């Protein structure tokens, strides 16, 4: 069985689609874009094809048929193997049940921000706030679009999760900006005795 390092997030996304039915890589890419899977994994055509080939070498997917349409090149249609189904199930259920040690950049940046002027920190947080608001708007639009498509909600729970997390981050960031603006947080200038 492949190691966890060999099964990237993109590989899991491929296995998820093949768990539904056999597909060729171009179809996988289109479905991932429609479902906004590209918000969760880095999706590039070249890396998708490379990932499918690697999964085939690992015995997790196999070519189920080859299609040809007119003068176009042949398209390989891939199906998930029994080992692929087993690995997919084990990895996803483990990911659902286990709180992973992740190292997001924002908490690190917050822990390091004391090295800068309070006004600088507040201005950068305002930029982040604006970007978060834009992302929430985009996620809401994606949510609405998927609802209109009548795609079962189980396929886009991730969008609701991401929107909820972005809203929580926005609320926390807004509170911090307010505390900096009202000087409720003591923020001495860098290099002063009080800042150490």
Count of folded domains: 2
CATH homologous superfamily label of the largest domain? Winged helix-like DNA-binding domain superfamily/Winged helix DNA-binding domain
How would you characterize the largest beta sheet? 2 strands, antiparallel
Write down how many β-strands occur, each being a DSSP E stretch of 2 or more residues.
Answer: 2
With helices defined by DSSP (H or I, 4 residues minimum), what is the helix count?
A: 7
What is the H/E string?
A: HHHEEHHHH
Helix content: 55-70%
Give the topology, please.
Elements lengths: L8 H12 L4 H10 L10 H13 L3 E7 L7 E6 L1 H16 L7 H8 L5 H31 L8 H25 L15
Antiparallel strand pairs: 1-2
Protein name: PadR family transcriptional regulator
InterPro entries: Metal_resp_DNA-bind_regulator (IPR052509), Tscrpt_reg_PadR_N (IPR005149), WH-like_DNA-bd_sf (IPR036388), WH_DNA-bd_sf (IPR036390)
Keywords: Coiled coil
Summed up:
The chain is mainly alpha-helical and 196 residues long. It is built from 7 helices and 2 strands; from the N terminus they run H-H-H-E-E-H-H-H-H.
